[in-house]
Amino acid sequence: MASSPATIGDFSVLPVSIPPLPSFPKNAVHYLYVRRHTPKIPTPTDSRSLFVTNVPVDSTEAHLRALFASLVGAGRFESATFEDESKEAHSQSQSQSLIDVAQPAHAARLLQAHGRKRKREDDEAERAREEAAVRLPSTWTRPLRRSGSTAVVLLADEKSVQQVLKAIGKAHKTKKYPAWPGSDDLPEGKVPPLGPAWLKAHNRLSYPDRQALQASVDAFSALFARREQEAAEIAKRLRNEPDEDGFVTVTRGGRSAPASRTEAEEAKRRMLEKQEKKKEELTNFYRFQLRERKKAEQAELLKRFDEDRRKLEAMREKKGKFVPEA
């Protein structure tokens, strides 16, 4: 087996021995590329994180935990975040969630503009419960990574990062490469198996239990109806409350009754006060400009007066030199 370079650029090359499998009964070597994690936007955990690329397609956190334990011992590994998981979390934060889908567009606008504000913690907890209730059951027991994907490994401290990089260099010198953990090396129940068992489980989960599916549909319908009811209550309140300008918001369904005379008079009074306030603000705002304009007009008048005076003096001098014919 040809030797591989110890480093490529900023990456340390970690050869990993892949044990024989029934689908491929030969020993193989897979290369991981490891460096310190230096993202564009720094985070507090960068000093104790490693960026790993070219992870195997069947990688899980349990696999990486066992691999790093074989390099520097147990207790150094904390967690791992894979590329597809971080992208999914980022896309979910920017895209519509199941809760946003489970309400009509007009209800969403009304609730966002006029809904009662709740505490952020309570809102997030309730949103998580509602999303869990309306989410359909998953059809896969275990994801597979894209070929050549990446992961960020979080270790216990910065010293652990140094020990991992040092262990990778030592593995190149001794030619004793760590083995990629198989099903026998991982805790039972934490990593579902691949192969025929994985495909059989997918086929079974593609036909979920009727009661579980019905519960998800019922939760979605109940959430949709509740959001419709909340929007209807807000629309009814807006149809009977004029705004500060004396206007009544036109909402879906039209007005059920005109605003009362007392409400209209109060709204008109507020509107007149607002107009007086705006007029006063505009007067104060343009006072400086009016003063400057008057100064400019006075300067222009003085300039024209001087020009006319010089013209008059020139005409007088010319008239004094005039000699009429005899």
From TrEMBL:
Residues 10-184 form the Rrp7 RRM-like N-terminal domain. One of its GO terms (biological process) is rRNA processing. It holds the Pfam family RRM_Rrp7. Residues 245-276 are annotated as: Disordered. InterPro entries: RRM_Rrp7, RRP7, RRP7_C. One of its GO terms (cellular component) is UTP-C complex. It comes from the Eukaryota. Residues 205-324 form the Ribosomal RNA-processing protein 7 C-terminal domain. Residues 262-276 have a biased composition (Basic and acidic residues). Belongs to the RRP7 family. This is RRM domain-containing protein.
